[in-house]
User: Which sequence fits this backbone?
């Protein structure tokens, strides 16, 4: 019975079957039929991935207040449609090293990041962050350590880790937040070895260090690990996002670095200030690209921890 | 990685570009082709299904069938694509088309299926038969263009 249940988990929304199917489809389906398939699969997951749909709806109620429920349902569909495109194009890049167009917003900050000895890239579950890391690693010939929340399914996690390895072609290394304490030491070591560390700072997962800050006018817990790490390692934090503009077209958004250093204030005060700066940046980017924020967790709801 | 978009997948726009003296490489990066041709394939398949149902059902039953046909065609294509993938494997096992990618062979098979659907629409004598005619004309033009491109121009990917 346990074996059957385990096998059936492959077909759950987060199951590995869908990732494997995507790889199969990208190899077998003519490129011009992918938009049709993506449209229908979005409809399928919009219906069956109810927790994700509810999370998007609850987030949209705060991000775009005053909208009708029906409008937000449509927006939730658009968000899922963009997500489908994002993972499809990410996998396409992995399999075929396909050609992608990109433009840069904040070229000066990006150059600063590329020239930095070591730095923390703070990003969100937004746009195509996997592709973004791969593009960055390729463009600037820098190795990136990506920190991710573990996938709920073991096989999916293994599949995703292999995919990211292929996407980055050796330039992207993935670490998981399963053991927050030992990971912190690893990341500190990586920063001191002049590496770039990429962390998603829009969601608290598991027992990672966090603090409450104002986000869209609500008290929301956000991870504090990147800011503590930046202070100890004395490196800057670069907010970076990659949003999808259209068919194989992306925009890399880089903002001015957040500096969480200095001796005049206490660590907690400095972290609180940096966290607030980050929440302002994140809020601004999410406001502009609400349809590409894939935090499928009700960020503003009291039961967010249960979902995370 | 050059950060610019160019190229077309289908021979007809590539031939037009070449006649105009422009560089025309084969590429899957054209969004117009990606969205337009896939939608056309789906429309033809849908109209093919509808043309089979139309004479057999009456009033409200037609309406329900036409609604159910929308996801039905999607599922139908998923099955066809899977069966086609087996044909591709067979071709490769027999040593045919080994220099072509799987989705290129699938594209040929999809073209054959869709053209057959379009021919069926054309013979069904329903008001939307002009859509089938349009598809067949487009396929004929594209094949002719492919012939001229192969004959007079060097292909680049």
Assistant:
């Amino acid at each position: 019975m346990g074996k059957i249940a385990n096998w059936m988990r492959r077909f759950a929304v987060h199951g590995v079957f869908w990732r494997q199917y995507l790889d199969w489809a990208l190899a077998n389906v003519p490129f011009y039929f992918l938009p049709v398939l993506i449209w229908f699969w979005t409809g399928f997951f919009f219906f069956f991935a109810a927790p994700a749909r509810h999370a998007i709806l609850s987030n949209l109620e705060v991000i775009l207040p005053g909208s009708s429920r029906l409008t937000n349902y449509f927006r939730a569909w658009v968000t899922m449609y963009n997500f489908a495109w994002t993972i499809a194009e990410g996998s396409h890049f992995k399999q075929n090293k396909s050609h992608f167009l990109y433009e840069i917003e904040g070229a000066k900050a990006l150059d600063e990041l590329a020239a930095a000895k070591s730095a923390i890239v703070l990003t969100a579950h937004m746009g195509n962050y996997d592709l973004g890391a791969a593009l960055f690693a390729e463009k600037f010939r820098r190795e990136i350590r990506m920190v991710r929340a573990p996938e709920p399914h073991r096989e999916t996690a293994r599949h995703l880790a292999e995919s990211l390895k292929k996407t980055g072609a050796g330039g992207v290394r993935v670490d998981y937040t399963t053991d927050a304490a030992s990971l912190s030491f690893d990341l500190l070591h990586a920063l001191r070895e002049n590496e770039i560390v990429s962390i998603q700072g829009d969601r608290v997962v598991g027992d990672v260090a966090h603090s409450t800050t104002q986000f869209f006018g609500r008290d929301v817990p956000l991870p504090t690990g990147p800011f503590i790490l930046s202070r100890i390692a004395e490196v800057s934090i670069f907010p970076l996002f990659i949003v999808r503009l259209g068919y194989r077209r992306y925009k890399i958004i880089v903002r001015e670095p957040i500096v969480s250093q200095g001796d005049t204030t206490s660590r907690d005060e400095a972290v609180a200030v940096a966290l607030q700066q980050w929440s302002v940046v994140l809020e601004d980017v999410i406001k502009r690209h609400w349809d590409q924020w894939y935090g499928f967790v009700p960020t503003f709801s009291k039961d967010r921890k249960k979902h995370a | 990685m050059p950060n610019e978009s160019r190229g077309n997948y289908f021979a007809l726009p590539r031939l037009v570009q070449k006649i105009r003296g422009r560089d025309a490489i084969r590429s899957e990066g054209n969004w117009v082709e990606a969205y337009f041709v896939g939608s056309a394939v789906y429309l033809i398949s849908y109209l093919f299904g509808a043309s089979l149902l139309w004479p057999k059902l009456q009033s409200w039953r037609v309406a329900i069938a036409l609604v159910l046909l929308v996801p039905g065609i999607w599922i139908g294509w998923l099955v066809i694509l899977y069966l086609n993938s087996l044909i591709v494997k067979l071709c490769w096992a027999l040593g045919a088309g080994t220099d072509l990618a799987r989705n290129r062979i699938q594209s040929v098979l999809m073209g054959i299926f869709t053209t057959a659907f379009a021919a069926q629409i054309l013979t069904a004598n329903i008001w939307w038969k002009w859509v089938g005619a349009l598809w067949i004309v487009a396929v004929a033009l594209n094949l002719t263009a492919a012939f001229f491109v192969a004959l007079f121009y060097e292909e680049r990917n």
About this structure: Chain B has a mean pLDDT of 89. Residues 60 and 66 of chain B are 10 Å apart (CA to CA). The interface with chain A takes residues 1-5, 9, 27-29, 31, 33-39, 41-42, 71, 74, 77-78, 81, 84-85, 88, 101-104, 106-107, 110 of chain B (CB under 8 Å). The longest helix of chain B spans residues 59-93.
